[in-house]
Amino acid sequence: MSxxxxxxxxxxxxxxxxxxxxxxxxREVFVIGLTGSLDEGxxxxxxxxxxxxxxxxxxxxxxxxxxxxxxxxxxxxxxxxPDFSSLKLDMKGVLLLPRALKxxxxxxxxxxxxxxxxxxxxxxxxxxxxxxxPGLVCGEGVLGRHTPDDAHRAxxxxxxxxxxxxxxxxxxxxxxxxxxxxxxVEAAEGTDRMIERVATLRQALRGTPRQRRxxxxxxxxxxxxxxxxxxxxxxxxxxxxxxxxxxGIGLEAGGALIVDxxxxxxxxxxxxxxxxxxxL
Amino acid sequence: MSxxxxxxxxxxxxxxxxxxxxxxxxREVFVIGLTGSLDEGxxxxxxxxxxxxxxxxxxxxxxxxxxxxxxxxxxxxxxxxPDFSSLKLDMKGVLLLPRALKxxxxxxxxxxxxxxxxxxxxxxxxxxxxxxxPGLVCGEGVLGRHTPDDAHRAxxxxxxxxxxxxxxxxxxxxxxxxxxxxxxVEAAEGTDRMIERVATLRQALRGTPRQRRxxxxxxxxxxxxxxxxxxxxxxxxxxxxxxxxxxGIGLEAGGALIVDxxxxxxxxxxxxxxxxxxxL
Lengths: 280, 280
Known about the structure:
Chain A contains 9 helices and 13 strands. By secondary structure, the first copy, chain A, is α/β, with parallel strands linked by helices. In chain A, helix 3 runs antiparallel to helix 4, helix 7 (about 190-200) runs parallel beside helix 8 and helix 8 (about 235-245) packs parallel to helix 9. The two termini of chain A are about 35 Å apart.
């Protein structure tokens, strides 16, 4: 039987999917929701034993996990970089803040790596989504019934090259390419805002829901630790890509997560987009 | 005396500044304004001998330049990628279209290189802004009275690394970095839209006009031919950066242009931003 899993949950659909996937896999789960990152009004956390606390209270998190008999831990979901000047800190938080600030200055991945290291130093074992809920990992091949053509494959190739180059500098993990032209590249705004702005570009450069052109790609950053943070899409991503006139979504097989695969496939089929996992 | 200069003018302030700079440098100038790219209602072109024509009419452009005795030519300003399917073509345009389409598929720089090659094959000599109007080139050092501190210099260094990596893939030539975090990276939306979206990020990540943080950087793409297309800033760029709460602007010395240096320095001084040229 697998060890009890502690999930430190940020925003988005991923923490719910991981918790449900791990439970389906036969694991007991305990969730710590982070204030400021956990989606407000989102009550999936109520389905699991849980506590909600400030990201500045690591001492409380260690204590709760130990009390619950948690041995494996996992960070999932969007964790917003906190405003360190107004963060509520417990004693451990005060002690760890200088290292957190130093890591934060090096980028988001460095900050996440620090958070994982912090739990590992306390004796917990950090595992990744691929281990906790392997059904979420994107495989190779096409999901659903639409398939990319040669031009889409060329755009995916260019998109992956862009994301890998940017990722090596810990910038973003997504881009949109249309017939060779990089329409949008992700930085701090996140994938959703990036997709949305494609629709604001001149129409000659992009597709429309009637005439789909261009692809969204997401891939693991070379600096990114698959244990802590993998690119993720879900039904809402497909809907946004469709609204922006894109023809499809290309994901790094083994390097990206799909929340609710069956629903994603059904939505992509209904809207006329492909979703392809590509081995890089 | 310098040879007569033919300027193929796109949008923005650069073509005007180049035409005025070249004339001040003692050159005769003839301007061809490109429909679809030239700013509408902008009548600077009326101050120079000129014609306005479609980017699909290269035959007409060659003829006009020859009639005017133009030997050196220069492309300046934003040239929007045309909608090739609705482009009005002259005979030369029809003949050259397949090569233009092929170049366009490889990115904007490839398209510009093709346009320059097209004029060179007709016997014209393509020159760069640095030769036609050397006063526009950004030098090393600070313009105005505000200076970057060590944190700003670190952000500029990170920004230049991002722009050079992206530029090698012909993506963009600008980025915004704030305390190590890449807030925005430029693709097809252009520098103006990129700066504007910084102000839409969560306030913890960015500065404000009251507490300026973060820097805009612009640098020459490694794929970019300094003859055809250099990054450029002007007074409006300083105003946009100021509105987005940025602390300053870092430019590649020798690899970027400043339109109206004295006005840019005065505006940056008034708004509290630095403008720094950095030798890369």
